[in-house]
């Protein structure tokens, strides 16, 4: 194909890509769409399909565009309705046209399928053309399809649906049979051909095609002219096939069962009554209702509930609410009295004809409520609702009792869920009478809180969700006066689920049910007030639900006790650790709503639970106990009273004795010790904050020993809780200098020297948490100890990045706590000398690139901690005395931050950029090129930049290469990014540097190359930079940003670069470095003659190295370079022929003569073997 013939295709692809980019801008702008706005794009895509190329790539790109547009209407498919007619007509006209090629025809049917997928086939099929003239062509096209062709299934699906709407034309099919054709040959009757096609696709493996075929057969056999002949034939054949089928034939079984279900749904009862018993008899075979395939069981449940033994009727005994308008709830009571429901009318005298098989059907549906698959339980629930509505009241009550029996402790979660769905369906249909409402309500309230632990997870979320649906259905089903006596319990339970459920779907379901009850019933206490804050969207955040929304709801006294009791009874002992912690924090906030209840009831229960053997119960109770006592202490403080005024001495004594009792019971050792230690540390912290009085020295010593023991514990969460506990304990109980203070600090510093990673982390953080009063007279010892921890060290200690990070954080906290003075005493203040040591250590930490084979660049946590510490310390020093900040220090801070803002890890790059911009616009003195940089980094523009996006950050920082104070460090950071392996970072950093080089004049290019070579000189053996420099060099040469300097014989940049690269990869055996060297040598073939000859000589060496992979890569890249660069060698055709035809995986001995021949053709000396001495 010529290049010109490819241009239309490429133009089409470019147009599609452009439309997709414009479309991406709109996606995600809102939750709801107002109309179908892509009309013109769809028209253009359909027009291109009709008139454009049939190339596979173009068709696929257009299809993806079409799908992407329609997919955004999955939640609002009705927006397509005004446009369905012209979309379907346009696509069908393409499919019908005799001039349409096969590929385009199938593509049009794919478009039709995706329209059907979004809008659903029941709606789309009504818009398909259904004239008599369409019958034969559509049937012929369907017959011509290969049902085993899995690539054309969309075409077959649409044709089946199209035929199903055509087949219901109001003419006898015998009148439409084709006339004899050919030499006396006549086609089969039209009806037989339609039936044959439907049965053919009923046996295929695709469920989608089976559904369409079943729909077609259903519409055909229920025609008036097919009921007497084809309906009995199909049902008898189906029963015969089902009786002979095995359980493993689930695909065909499912197709037949689904078709029968549709037939019994759409067919007339009188026509089907004869076949009900034979079908039921066959269906009760265990291989159907208990089949392992979900689709087979679902079709069986659908079929068994549609066996029409009972006549359609509206039960006269059902509950009738009458007018359900929301407006009635807003009118005064006296205006709505005449709209209240009437009493149920007495049943008619007409006898019910109830066959004995009905009991078996209901039993199977009740079993379906227990099925393991939700779709089957849901179908069974709807079936019970349909049948119950046709039963007399006495039998309907029996059905309800059977459903209620599912809600017991012996049944599993599937039964509870199915029962909830069934109750909702019965309530929605008005089949739950007031006599049963008390029992049903008590069951649903239990279901709203159902939660059973199974190993490391729980079951119950779907039950709670279904119970919310029942409450939602009750709001629509019953009159407000009939639910009045249950309102308080239902409202309280829904509020509890709204704010305290673990699963967001349950919280949202409860919010929707609460809102429905407020709107329909109008009797929920403070319903409108609650809904204005606690709505469907507000409860999406579990932290906000627990800690903010629950406090708001608890402000209404009707809900306060329900929320508190639920936390104490269920959430404090929850199986999920995070829920227990959130529950404790929520109790802290709710205590102030009813302090007396918390003191008299909650504390008593928590004290008992805190020493239980159950780990979850013990952990949650200790956490909650500490939070409640702290909250009571805050209330007492706000009222100007002591905590002893609110909590009696006996209870306080029990509170103090919790930790000794836990120690006696040996709960700090063995299984579960981690959670107990964590809870006890939190407990100590909260008691200290609550200012518990009258603690003796033994108790304080016990607390201190537990904290010190936990500081070296191997779990970080335990360590952090111990650090917080130590800080609170020292603040409350070590108010004056004493020997105990000195002993504590000495102990912390001693343990900081232990060669144990976790010990150093914990004790470093502990030193950083001490108050100013505690650090007085000890600062001259603490600061050097932490500075020694920040040092990298050797051996295994070098990889203890978490230790260095913790030490930096501790040092930063100390700098925020103590005084900073230029001539201050080192014992209690940070003076200029100490400050200089701290800054030196922090700046050195910015070069921590410790790497680990499993975790990669683990030094990033140290660099991030150092950057944060530098920002805080610089800001504080600037506020106190800007004279403490020297010009050299400012320059070092800014250029190092600029380097970090150019490196490859997103989090570090984002943090560095934010700190750099903040310091640039602060009062920090001596910033080099401050005015020019402020022009680049304007404050308002920087607020809108996402620094994690490399396409936004690199173009700004790359401009700093123009300023000598920053150029080296910025380029060093860029080299790491371009030479890395993070694709999006490599792409955008390379693009930014290439764009910068293209805009540079000769002077700037010379400066750039000088700095670039300087990086090579300064880092000859730095492992992390070796490959990065090689990859960056290759990209610089390929991008031709330095082409003018490389090709010039008067500039020695290319020659120096070649020598440095060769020195970098000398004696290496790493594949990636060798292949990078090959790429650089091939790229240097564009250079002047001296460098080109050197590069060809090195390439000749690579052609015979010991690694076959390197030889292959070298030959391939040399071949590409000879195509790309002109006048490299004179005998280019022969050289390229040798390169392409030689098997470079052969032995090196056989390849040397070939390599030497290439050297002759390239006019360079052949490499010679050098004997090793």
Automatic annotation (TrEMBL):
GO biological processes: adherens junction assembly; bicellular tight junction assembly; microtubule cytoskeleton organization; post-chaperonin tubulin folding pathway; tubulin complex assembly
Keywords of the record: Chaperone, Membrane, Transmembrane, Transmembrane helix
Ranges of the HEAT repeats in the UniProt entry: 361-398
Entry keyword Transmembrane: yes
Tubulin-folding cofactor D C-terminal domain ranges (all copies): 893-1071
Family the entry assigns: Belongs to the TBCD family.
Species name: Strigamia maritima (European centipede)
Transmembrane segments: 157-173
UniProt-listed InterPro entries: ARM-like (IPR011989), ARM-type_fold (IPR016024), ARM_TBCD_2nd (IPR058033), HEAT_type_2 (IPR021133), TBCD (IPR033162), TBCD_C (IPR022577)
Annotated ranges, domain Tubulin-folding cofactor D ARM repeats: 296-528
A GO cellular-component term linked to this record: lateral plasma membrane
Name of the featured protein: Tubulin-specific chaperone D
Gene Ontology molecular function terms on file: beta-tubulin binding; GTPase activator activity
PANTHER family cross-referenced by the UniProt entry: BETA-TUBULIN COFACTOR D (PTHR12658), TUBULIN-SPECIFIC CHAPERONE D (PTHR12658:SF0)
């Amino acid at each position: 194909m010529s290049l010109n013939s490819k241009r239309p295709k490429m133009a089409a692809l470019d147009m599609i890509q452009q439309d997709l980019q414009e479309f991406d801008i709109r996606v995600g702008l809102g939750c709801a769409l107002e109309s179908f706005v892509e009309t013109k794009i769809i028209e253009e895509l359909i027009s291109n399909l009709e008139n454009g190329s049939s190339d596979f790539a173009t068709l696929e790109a257009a299809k993806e565009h079409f799908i992407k547009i329609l997919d955004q209407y999955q939640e609002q498919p009705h927006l397509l309705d005004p446009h369905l007619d012209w979309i379907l007509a346009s696509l069908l006209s393409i499919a019908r046209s005799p001039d349409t090629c096969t590929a385009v025809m199938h593509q049009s049917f794919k478009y039709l399928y995706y329209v059907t997928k979004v809008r659903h086939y029941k709606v789309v099929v009504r818009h398909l053309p259904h004239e008599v003239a369409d019958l034969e062509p559509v049937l012929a096209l369907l017959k011509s399809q290969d049902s085993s062709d899995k690539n054309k299934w969309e075409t077959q699906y649409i044709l089946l649906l199209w035929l199903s709407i055509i087949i219901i034309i109001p003419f006898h099919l015998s009148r439409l049979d084709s006339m004899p054709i050919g030499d006396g040959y006549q086609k089969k009757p039209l009806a037989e051909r339609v039936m044959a096609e439907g049965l053919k696709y009923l046996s295929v493996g695709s469920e989608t095609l089976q559904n369409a075929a079943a729909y077609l057969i259903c519409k055909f056999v229920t025609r008036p002219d097919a009921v007497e002949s084809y309906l009995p034939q199909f049902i008898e054949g189906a029963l015969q096939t089902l009786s002979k089928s095995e359980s493993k034939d689930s695909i065909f079984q499912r197709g037949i069962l689904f078709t029968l279900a549709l037939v019994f749904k759409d067919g007339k009862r009188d026509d089907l009554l004869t076949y009900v018993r034979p079908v039921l008899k066959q269906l009760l075979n265990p291989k159907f209702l208990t089949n392992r395939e979900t689709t087979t069981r679902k079709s069986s449940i659908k079929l068994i509930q549609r066996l029409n033994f009972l006549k359609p009727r509206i039960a006269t005994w059902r509950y009738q609410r009458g007018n359900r308008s929301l407006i009635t709830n807003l009118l005064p009571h006296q205006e709505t009295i005449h709209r209240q429901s009437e009493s149920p009318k007495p049943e008619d005298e007409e006898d019910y004809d109830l066959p004995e098989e009905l009991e078996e059907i209901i039993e199977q549906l009740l079993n379906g409520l227990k099925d393991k698959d939700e779709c089957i339980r849901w179908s069974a629930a709807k079936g019970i609702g349909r049948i119950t509505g046709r039963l007399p009241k006495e039998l309907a009550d029996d059905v309800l009792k059977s459903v209620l029996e599912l809600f017991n402790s012996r049944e599993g979660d599937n039964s509870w869920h199915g029962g909830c769905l069934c109750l909702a369906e019965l309530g929605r249909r008005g089949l739950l009478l007031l006599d049963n409402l008390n029992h049903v309500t008590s069951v649903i309230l239990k279901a709203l809180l159902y939660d059973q632990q199974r190993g490391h997870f729980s079951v119950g979320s779907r039950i709670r969700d279904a119970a919310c649906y029942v409450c939602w259905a009750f709001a629509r089903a019953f009159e407000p006066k009939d639910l009045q006596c249950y309102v308080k319990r239902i409202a309280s339970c829904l509020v509890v689920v709204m704010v305290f459920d673990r699963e967001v779907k349950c919280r949202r379901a409860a919010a929707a049910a609460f809102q429905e009850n407020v709107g329909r019933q109008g009797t929920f206490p403070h319903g409108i007030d609650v809904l204005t804050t606690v709505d469907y969207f507000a409860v999406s955040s579990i932290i906000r639900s627990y800690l903010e929304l629950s406090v708001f709801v608890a402000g209404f006294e009707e809900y306060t006790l329900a929320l508190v009791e639920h936390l104490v009874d269920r959430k404090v002992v929850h199986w999920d650790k995070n829920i227990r912690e959130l529950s404790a924090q929520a109790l802290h906030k709710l205590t102030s709503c009813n302090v007396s209840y918390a003191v008299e009831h909650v504390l008593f229960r928590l004290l008992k639970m805190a020493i239980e053997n159950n780990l979850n119960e013990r952990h949650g109770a200790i956490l909650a106990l500490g939070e409640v006592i702290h909250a009571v202490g805050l209330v007492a403080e706000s009222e100007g009273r002591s905590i002893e005024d609110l909590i009696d001495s006996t209870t306080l004594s029990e509170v103090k004795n919790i930790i000794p009792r836990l120690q006696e019971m040996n709960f700090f050792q063995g299984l579960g010790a981690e959670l107990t230690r964590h809870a006890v540390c939190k407990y100590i912290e909260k008691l200290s904050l609550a200012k518990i009085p009258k603690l003796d020295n033994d108790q304080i010593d016990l607390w201190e020993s537990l904290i010190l023991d936990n500081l070296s514990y191997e779990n970080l969460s335990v360590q952090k809780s111990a650090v917080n506990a130590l800080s609170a304990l020292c603040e409350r109980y070590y108010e004056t200098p004493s020997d105990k203070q000195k002993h504590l600090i000495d102990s912390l510093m001693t343990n900081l020297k232990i060669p144990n990673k976790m010990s150093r982390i914990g004790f470093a953080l502990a030193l950083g948490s001490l108050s100013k009063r505690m650090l007085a007279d000890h600062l001259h010892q603490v600061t050097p100890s932490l500075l020694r921890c920040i040092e990298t060290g050797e051996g295994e200690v070098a990889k203890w990045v978490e230790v260095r990070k913790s030490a930096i954080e501790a040092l930063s906290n100390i700098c925020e706590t103590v005084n900073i003075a230029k001539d201050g005493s080192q014992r209690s203040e940070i003076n200029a000398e100490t400050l200089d040591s701290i800054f030196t250590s922090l700046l050195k930490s910015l070069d921590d690139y410790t790497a680990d084979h499993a975790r990669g660049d683990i030094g990033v946590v140290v660099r991030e901690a150092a950057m944060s510490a530098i920002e805080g310390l610089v800001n504080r020093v600037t506020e106190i005395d800007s004279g403490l900040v020297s010009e050299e220090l400012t320059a070092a801070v800014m250029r190092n931050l600029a380097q970090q803002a150019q490196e490859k890890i997103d989090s570090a790059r984002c943090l560095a950029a934010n700190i750099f911009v903040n310091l640039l616009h602060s009062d920090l003195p001596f910033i080099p090129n401050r005015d020019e940089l402020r022009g680049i980094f304007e404050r308002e523009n920087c607020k809108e930049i996402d620094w994690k996006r490399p396409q936004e950050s690199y173009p700004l920082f790359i401009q700093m290469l123009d300023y000598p104070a920053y150029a080296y460090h910025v380029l060093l950071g860029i080299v790491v990014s371009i030479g890395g392996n993070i694709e999006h970072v490599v792409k955008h950093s390379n693009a930014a540097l290439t764009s910068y080089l293209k805009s540079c004049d000769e002077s700037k290019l010379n400066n750039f190359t000088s700095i670039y070579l300087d990086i090579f000189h300064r880092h000859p053996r730095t492992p992390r930079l070796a490959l990065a420099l090689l990859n960056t060099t290759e990209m610089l040469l390929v991008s031709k940003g330095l082409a003018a300097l490389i090709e010039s014989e008067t500039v020695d940049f290319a020659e120096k670069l070649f020598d440095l690269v060769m020195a970098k990869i000398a004696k290496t055996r790493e594949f990636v470095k060798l292949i990078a060297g090959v790429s650089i040598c091939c790229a240097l073939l564009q250079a002047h003659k001296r460098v080109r000859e050197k590069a060809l000589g090195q390439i000749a060496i690579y052609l015979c190295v010991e690694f076959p992979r390197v030889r292959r890569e070298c030959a391939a890249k040399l071949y590409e370079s000879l195509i790309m660069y002109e006048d490299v060698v004179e005998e280019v055709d022969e050289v390229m022929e040798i390169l392409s035809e030689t098997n470079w995986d052969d032995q090196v001995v056989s390849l040397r003569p070939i390599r030497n021949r290439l050297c002759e053709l390239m006019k360079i000396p052949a490499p010679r073997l050098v004997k090793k001495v």
